[in-house]
Specification:
The chain has 136 residues and is of the alpha+beta class. It is built from three helices and five strands, in the order ααβββββα.
Length: 136
């Protein structure tokens, strides 16, 4: 189901809790909501649709990738950038890393570890900030 985008900074500033198999509907809703906003959006965190669970979805060259309970395990190549967000008005300066390693569960709750770089790494970092209640 397509869910409205949360713009309440008090909700967005709250930390998300670990997700489990009972949260599969959130994944479906994230996928539907990202698809509905694809013209302006390349990634979403569950709190952006009102669910304080540690789930993100990221558009990649290979399609949409869901990450459940993602943890950024390593970061390399710090740089300054500017980002926008569907939940916030305007853009903000922030620091990101060119390449990251992430541990996460996929949609089948299989443990994964991946190395990401460039725009995909930037999106993952942005969405993980959302999960930690960090508003850029």
């Amino acid at each position: 189901m397509i869910r409205p985008i949360v713009k309440d900074v008090l909700l967005l500033a709250r930390k998300s809790t670990p997700a489990g198999k009972e949260d599969m509907q959130i994944i479906t809703d994230l996928r539907d909501t990202l698809q509905a906003n694809r013209e302006h959006c390349i990634g979403m965190a569950a709190n952006m649709i009102g669910s304080l669970k540690r789930i993100i979805i990221v558009s990649t060259e290979l399609g949409d990738m869901v990450m459940i309970n993602p943890v950024i395990a390593s970061r390399n190549g710090k740089y300054e950038t500017e980002e926008g967000c569907l939940s916030l008005v305007g853009t903000r300066k922030t620091q990101r890393f060119e390449s990251i390693t992430v541990r996460y569960l996929d949609e089948n709750f299989t443990a994964r570890k991946g190395r990401f770089s460039g725009l995909t790494a930037q999106i993952i970092q942005h969405e993980c900030d959302h999960l930690d209640g960090i508003i850029i």
